[in-house]
Structures are given as C-alpha cells and as structure tokens.
Amino acid sequence: MLARRIRLVTAALAGAAVSLSGVVAAGAAPAAPPAAWHVRSLHLAEAHLISRGAGVTVAVLDSRVNPHRDLRGALLPAADVAPTGTRDDAARGTQLAGLIAARGDGRTGLLGVAPEARILPVRVSGRGFDARPDSVAAGIDRAVSGGAEVILTTYTRPEITDALAAAVRRAVAADTVLIAPAGPGTPAAPTLADLPGVISVAGAGEDGKPERETVRGVRLDVAAPAERLVAPVRASLGDAYAEVSGADYAAALVAGTAALVRSKFPRLAAADVARRLEREDRRSMALGWGVVDAEAALTRPLTDLPVVPPAAARTGATPRDRQWYLDAIAVPDAQRLTRGDGVTVGLLTGTVDTTRSDLTGRVTRQVWLNDDGDEGKAPATAPRPADTAAAVLVGGSGGDGYLGVAPAAELITAAATRPEVAVRWLVDNGAEVILAADGTAPLTAAAVAYALSHDAVVVAPHSPDAPAVPGVLTVRGVRQDDALTPAASPAISAPGELNLLLGAGQVASASPDESAAALVAGVAALVRARHPEADAGTTVQRLLTTATTVDGDGSVAYGRGIVDPVGALTADVATSANPLGGPGPAQDQQSAGGPPWLIVGAAAGLLFLAGLLAVVLRRRRRRTVLAAQKGQAPLVGEVDHPPAL
C-alpha cells in the first residue's frame, strides 16, 4: 500500500502556519488554513468563475467523514459497508472530503476544488486503511444507488476479486466517473486503477515533477498535486488542518475537478469527462497525460464522439479486466467512431483456434501454402499458434474473452515456408492491413513491395536484430511499468505485455512487441474503416503524425510516439505517400517465368553464354588482325571454336 504522510498544522492568529504537537484549545478563535499551493496549480480561481460543482454528488469510499466547519452543508447521510467491528479514526475520509468540497471562504476556512458539490461518505475501511475488496465492491454499489456521479476510492491493493471487478463494470454502465490512485499493480495482479473505465491518478510535487512515491508507466491517466496539501481534520479539541501527501489526495483533487466538469456539462458521458481531464499534446510515463488543469478541463475544445454503451460495461472478467492497454490509449473511445466494419486484416503467421469464444466468427479463412501458392496441409513444424495476436486484433464476441481493437473487422490468415507467397495470397484476398506477427526477419523486400503496390499497410513488431525492410510500420511494446531501453528505434510504439492464451490443446503467446504490433494493426484497420478513401500511405501518415510524444531522455525508444487511435481517426491529415518509403518496385514472380530457382538458373545460363560469346569474338578479332599484318585475308567460312571445357 502506498504511504500517506500527514502532519497536523494550524495557524497563529497572525496567519503563519506552524507544526503542532496538539491542537487549538477549546474556545479559541477559528484558525485559518495555511496557503494551499494546489489552488494555484489547478487554476481554481479561474475555474470557479465557470463552475463550482453545483448539483453533483461525489462519493468518497474510505474511512468515516467527520463533521468540520468547512464541510457544513456539504455532507449527505453516510453509508457504512465496512466489516463489523472495524475501528476508525476518520482522519483520511475527512481530509479527502475537504479537498473535494470544503466550503470555507479561503481566508478563515479551506476552499475545496468543487465547493458546491455534495459528499456521499461511504465507509469501507477503518484505522490503517485496511479495506477489503468485497467491502470496496459493496461501497461502489452503494455509491451508484445513492446517485453519485463521481466515485473516489483509495483502494490500491493488487487484489481484485470477481465481485469488485463486477461492481466496477456496473458503475461504468451507470455512467459514473470512477477515480483511484495508481498503485503498484502488474498485468497479472492489477489494482483497481488498472481496471477498464477507472481513471488512474499519479501524484505531482509543487515543482511539477512526480511525487516521490508515485508509480510509473503507460497505464497512468492523469496527475494532480500530491505534496504538502492542506486538508481539514477533526481533532480531539476541535477543527484543525493537516498537511498531507500522497496519490490518494491527488485522486481527491481529480475527483473534485470531475465534479466541476459534470456540473458544467451535465449531459456529458463519463468517458468524455475523462477526456476533458487529459491534456492531449504530450504524455509522460510518470504523470500520464499531465497535471490536471481545472480551467482547461472546463474550456478546452473536445472532438465530439457518438455516445455508445461503454465497452468496459459490455464485456468483463478475465482477460478483459486485464486489458489495461486498451484504456491506456482510449481504444473504447475510438470504437465509438468505428469498430472496423468492412475491413479485411491479414495475419501472416501460424494458425488460430477459431473455437475460442472471443474468436468465434472472427476468422473467415485460414490457409497453408506451398511454394507455388497452392493450398495444402500445414506440416508438423508449422509456426506456433497465433491466437493472441488474433484476439488483440479482432476479438469481440463478448463474455469472458478478449475485446479486440477492431472487433468488426474480418480476419484471414496465411502461412507458408516462403513468406512472400503468403503475403501475395493475403493481398489477393483483400487484406488492407497485414500483420507480420513474427517480425520483419521473415519478410522479404519483394513481399513488402507487392503489398505496398497493392495498397496494403504492413505492420510488424520491432526486430532490432533483423535487417530493416523499408515500408514496414515497426512497433515497440511499452509495458505497464515502462520497461524500455533507449537503444530501440521503431516507427511507433503502443502498450504491450506478454500475453498467454490457453486454447484447445495448444498454448498461444505473444511478446510485448507482438501484442503492441497487433494493437497498431487494429488501429490501422479502424482508420481504413473510418476513412475508406485513404490509401496505405495516408493511413500510415495518420498513425505517425498523431502519435503522442513521450517525455524523457529515452524517447527515441518510442519512435514517433505512442499510437493515438482517436487522433488517428479524427485529425486532419493531408494525403501523402508512405512516409516509411518502400523497398522498390514489386517483382511478379509468376509473370517472370516461375519460382526463384528457375529464374536464377536461367540467369546463370544467360551469363555463361554471354561470356562464351565474348571469348569467341575476342579470338576472331585477334585472327583478323594477324591476317592483315601478313597481307592475307581470312579464309571464307573459317570459324572459331570455343575452348574445351
């Protein structure tokens, strides 16, 4: 569990903040809180001219919330779902509620982010913040039934039960904004902030840098001030203020900002509230989409997207709840525009188990081809199964399976001992996007040239040890913990993890780079469905020019940045040739006279004959010169004979 640092402070009547070992004596004049730097950082003075959170209910799932003079009129009747007998000191619940909705005037009291919002206290834990997952699940359900439009939970343990995941899905389906601090989770053991539909919050210091105890990674959504924050607390002798630090309190500030947005835009979907909180120009592995700016969240222009039921509410359970990477780049928002209808994606590798629930009806043809391009039976040494890449691409039958990036696209697969034969078959059967799941090593220039000449986008995982093939969109996988080395130089990056699927008697796996390449191929399919007029070059241009720049000295490892599906679908991008270039003109092997061995043999024969003819002509010229010197003419019909071989 992340550490939370609390220091009790008050102010002398002159207004200077000091540390206390006690509190203000009973009957003393109310103490003013110290200056709160987060008010300036969030631009709250400007934001409050637009919205103060009126009419919005924010549920705080933590310890009990005690009365405080700065919370008068802000608290709704509390709910208690914590286990019976749980002790409670109520400190943190009160602090969180104050940061969100304190109603003081800023001089003799604390002013919260959304001072006209209402707080629904839901007690799920007590002393030591020892919440249990089932209590948090019950608290989420209680908050939804109580009419909360924003829910803040501080549960960060990597222990997600089926009941808790289901409660999150119900809240998402109810169009509730869920906010949680980022915790030390992994894909195999996610925290609540990693679940689909939850806004993950990191902490930042007054200097704008990451708070020292915050986590890193591409899974982060936004950040907020998290050091030396001033919050109300009910002490034994009366109202006081505490100086607190930690991502929990940053999440409270984000919850207050979400309340401002929901008050200003009461019909805005929860997913679009999240989009307003995110800065879209730059991404940081330590601060997500950047430190929240309340004024900007209320005023920035936002691309309109159709309102559809949230994807996180339609599908769930493992493995969907582990697909953090979809939400990391807002794939569900992109699917509000298109799901890949009418596009054919070609998978160049292995076989796919079509009996999987998430792939039922998704794969229309699978072939194994011999060197002549004829369909045959796959040999015993056929490539490994490609279920994972297929599921990331087009999975989407619902239930407990994967949600693919382009779940309405058609998938065809082809494998052969010679990849160019398989590429030709995929292209000739309508593939507009081709995923070479095994990387660029098996690809040849002729195969890529044929695909590009027939307007197909070729995507492959980055292969630093394989020779580069011009024209291929190479992809690097960014793991949840941002484990990247700056030596790599892909064209683009995307979230990726080691994925393992168990199928019918087989195991399918995909490395982080392979998973990321499948994700980018899916986004390319979305672009081609949304913009059918765009050729392959313009499609690649859309992916590269809208990729999100990543901060840090190792940014070269991300190529042009992390793929942005919504940006790729909505940005104004000029028509252009493939910015990755190409390997040259395509070679049509069949029209050239047959397979490569025959072509090579014929060429060798021609070279031999040409050399032989050169020898003959050289000897004939020499004899002519000698005859002229002797005054003799060469004999008519005299011929030269080639040397014995």
From TrEMBL:
Family: Belongs to the peptidase S8 family.
Species annotation: Actinoplanes friuliensis DSM 7358
Protein's name according to its UniProt entry: Peptidase S8/S53 subtilisin kexin sedolisin
Signal peptide interval: 1-31
Transmembrane residue ranges: 597-617
Keywords: Hydrolase, Membrane, Protease, Serine protease, Signal, Transmembrane, Transmembrane helix
Annotated GO MF terms: serine-type endopeptidase activity
All copies of domain Peptidase S8/S53, residue ranges: 53-279
InterPro entries reported for this sequence: Peptidase_S8/S53_dom, Peptidase_S8/S53_dom_sf, Peptidase_S8_subtilisin-like, Peptidase_S8_subtilisin-rel, TAT_signal
GO biological process: proteolysis
